[in-house]
């Protein structure tokens, strides 16, 4: 229902932020009123997506598309990660140096692109166009028509840290090919730093000291050490990263289940179409809550395979088509991913030490004013994991590990 009481003169512009992620894409917007006294700068998130059901909307829409034989395109929540012919990890398609995340064993976007005859830039353009058009329709549904007609629009998109020039150029071309205009491109570390400064309590971190931005998303994790130099956020060392996002947990859980039930039972799981049900259960009931599992039976989870009719194997905890997975096994899955992220944190710390010594030897006096890293700032979907935050804090007791709250 449209909101009443505002005119186009009272709210002349809207800033729309598109967080184009490797696995999920989110959109948020803020209205800027002409009367500064009335400005509240309330951030609104787009939470309804075509084809979305239930809690899927809280993650945004999946960054993937599927082209039909008639040339039409399905995108986002209209398809899932088990839809044949899908093209996913769209963001990684723009970076020739990047390997697609390995959370989907049957993904071969390169072959699909070749078959379609579409370059990566055009595919990303199609997806971003669909996202932006949906966002504008969603915003328009909230306000009177005359209000929207006079509303100036500006888009903001972020660029990953460490992206090569060729990837940045392709991304800009993909954006230009859409109706997303005017647009401002902001480096992801700068965007995260600004949000941290606005949202975090200053007692939680020292903004004057260097800090590590850890952007932990669904498919990838990127880290870079930044500092505030003359009121500007600057990267102090080279960014690092890897395919250690939250969907790697899905992949490892998938592998654990496949190994535990055995080859013959696994074929039955696939034939029954039960895998998507199991992964959704892991997403909704385990991944977001681990390790806050209750005592007693909470020391394990029960994974059931509807209609698969598996053969019992009590030694492996498989009975009546349900598999018991222990807390120990789950922790092993989580730790295998968290440990890789911790390695990246330590790599940033070591690089900072080396860079400091090198710069001071070369007489760069600026580095006399740059102190030691004191804070790791978690952003991104996986950055919301309590387990990731707790483990990084335990493994790095000298640092303060904090999280940027999502809008």
TrEMBL record:
The lineage of its organism: Eukaryota, Fungi, Dikarya, Ascomycota, Pezizomycotina. This is Hsp70 protein. PANTHER family: ALPHA KINASE/ELONGATION FACTOR 2 KINASE, HEAT SHOCK 70 KDA PROTEIN 12A. It comes from Ramularia collo-cygni. CDD domains: ASKHA_NBD_HSP70.
């Amino acid at each position: 229902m449209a909101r009443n009481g505002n005119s186009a003169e009272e709210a002349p512009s809207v800033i729309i932020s598109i967080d184009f992620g490797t696995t999920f894409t989110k959109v948020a917007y803020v209205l800027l009123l002409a009367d500064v006294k009335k400005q509240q700068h309330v951030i609104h998130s787009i939470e309804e997506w075509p084809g979305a059901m239930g809690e899927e909307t809280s993650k945004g829409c999946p960054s993937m598309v599927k082209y039909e034989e008639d040339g039409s395109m399905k995108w986002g929540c209209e398809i899932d990660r088990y839809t044949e012919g899908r093209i996913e990890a769209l963001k990684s398609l723009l970076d020739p140096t990047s390997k697609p995340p390995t959370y989907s064993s049957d993904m071969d976007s390169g072959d699909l692109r070749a078959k379609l005859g579409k370059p990566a830039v055009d595919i990303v353009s199609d997806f971003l166009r669909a996202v932006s058009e949906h966002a504008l329709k969603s915003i328009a549904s909230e306000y009177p028509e005359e209000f929207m007609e006079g509303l100036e629009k500006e888009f903001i998109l972020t660029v990953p840290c460490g992206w090569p020039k060729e990837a940045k150029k392709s991304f800009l071309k993909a954006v230009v090919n859409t109706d997303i205009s005017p647009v401002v491109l902001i480096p992801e570390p700068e965007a995260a730093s600004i949000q941290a400064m606005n949202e975090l309590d200053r007692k939680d971190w020292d903004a004057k000291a260097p800090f590590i931005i850890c952007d932990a998303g669904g498919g990838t994790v990127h880290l870079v050490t930044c500092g505030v130099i003359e009121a500007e956020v600057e990267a102090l060392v080279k960014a690092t990263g890897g395919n250690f996002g939250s969907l790697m947990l899905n992949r490892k859980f998938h592998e654990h289940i496949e190994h535990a039930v055995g080859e013959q039972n696994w074929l039955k799981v696939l034939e029954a179409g039960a895998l998507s049900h199991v992964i959704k259960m892991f997403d909704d009931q385990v991944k977001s809550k681990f390790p806050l599992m209750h005592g007693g039976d909470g020391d394990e989870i029960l994974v059931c395979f509807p209609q698969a009719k598996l053969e019992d194997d009590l030694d492996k905890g498989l009975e009546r088509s349900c598999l018991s997975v222990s807390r120990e096994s789950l922790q092993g899955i989580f730790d295998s991913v968290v440990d890789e992220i911790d390695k990246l944190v330590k790599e940033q710390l070591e690089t900072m030490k080396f860079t400091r010594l090198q710069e001071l030897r070369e007489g760069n006096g600026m580095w006399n004013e740059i102190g030691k890293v004191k804070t790791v700032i978690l952003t991104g979907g996986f950055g919301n994991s309590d387990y990731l935050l707790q483990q990084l804090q335990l493994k790095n007791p000298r640092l303060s590990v904090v999280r940027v709250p999502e809008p």
